[in-house]
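Annex B.
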Amino acid sequence: MHFQNLLLAVASAIFFSLSVSSESINPNGSINLVEDEALFTFEYETLDPHERNWIGLHKDRSIGLVQNGVKRSARIPVAWVYAPEGKGTVRIPAARLRPGRYTGIFCAKNGYDWLASPLVLYFDQEQQPGLDFVVNEITLRNARADEWYGATLAGFVRGSPKGVAFKKGTHAPEWLDLGHDGIIWGKPGRAAQDITFTVCAIRGEFTASIKVTIPVRNRNEMMVNQLRVMSMSLGSNHTASHDNQVRFIVESKADIIGLQDDNMGERAAKLAGALGWFYWASKESHSILSKYPICSTMENVGKTGRAIISLDGEWQMVSFWVAQLSAQPYGFCDGGMSADQVIQRESDNRRPKEIETILRAMDTDLESANITPVFLVGGFNAPSHLDSTGKHCDFKWPTSVKPLEVGLVDSFRAARPDPDPSPNEGITSVDKTERLNFVYHKGSGLEVVDSWVVMASEPEYGAVVTLYNVTDSIWDMKMRRRV
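Endonuclease/exonuclease/phosphatase domain-containing protein: predicted structure tokens.
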């Protein structure tokens, strides 16, 4: 794979002045793009080698600078790689990047002091001569006998589906039609069962295939009798590339996801397009992804937002809330602070007030949770008292106590009531003993089967997944009427 529509990288003409760090690191090195190698391959050289030196790419709107270059920006690059040698070659795959203008910066020791003058890079699109799907297999949302069904597979093509034609492969049922654009539609017959089949993608001389499963319910079954709910951060190191995010979500088998660190809703929209899902996005960077239709939404109330999701028309609905509470400062019970000091620090960062505001907004939904089950998921940026052991001082963290006071259930501790055997669940890169991601629920129609943490490649947070059995008295009433 070589450069196609890439303009030459040029030395940045951007004016900057250097500050002197405590270690007096000077930009005496160099960074250059290698034209005859795959995108983006850099040659670099420095007189200050270190195992934590790194090369990063920043979008044009953030080139790693702040006012007059007096201080380095802490903005996270869109992609990066370590460059530990005095002289060497490294590669940042272009598959992680969108077309556009980027700035390449060579920095020292996990910091933002330059080791070389930056580069400005332009590229239109990485040209992929082959064809591939992001995942090898996918389970789509449930179908039901005698009811019309639709889905799309185009978003699972790696890169762009432009120029790709889709065709049925093996074991495709007669009731199912597949358009050349990857759209699936049809009506399963009364005797239809779960189906697994292959779909082929063709572009020029290249082909790829994906295994597709569609669970099919009979006419008298609930559409969704098991539901997987996930709380997940899209933070800087968490499944950083779009393809990795899609793969991670597919492999989790989640049905509804509460996202945090969503870059003002941008990633939710892109992921929903690839997955063929529904979404609600917030400029506060917490969003919702759902396999099933979103009927209505409520805009942000403080640090939360809500979507009413229809699992099966008006007969089976859930109220899904996502939240992301304020982050730093973060007070540790075992960090030499008294309980009063921790409470004060929590109050200073507004987390207790934020969770109170969220729970007040949920009040009406919580009152009717036995009719429409309620979920509250998100990153609370504080531990839970349910995870407390002796070394955690048994501290009553307000953000975990208050949800229980209004009848919400911490699904993870419902499944795993003993905190001692699993001290690293939901780890962060800062402290590997604190669980900061949560899936709460309320409603007699929900039964926790299991709950676990799914780890991606060096995440900021472990994503929490809870599997529920779902019962529904309203659905039972519908069946009695039908009989």
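The longest strand covers residues 195-203. The first helix runs from residue 242 to 252. Further annotation is deferred to the next reporting cycle.
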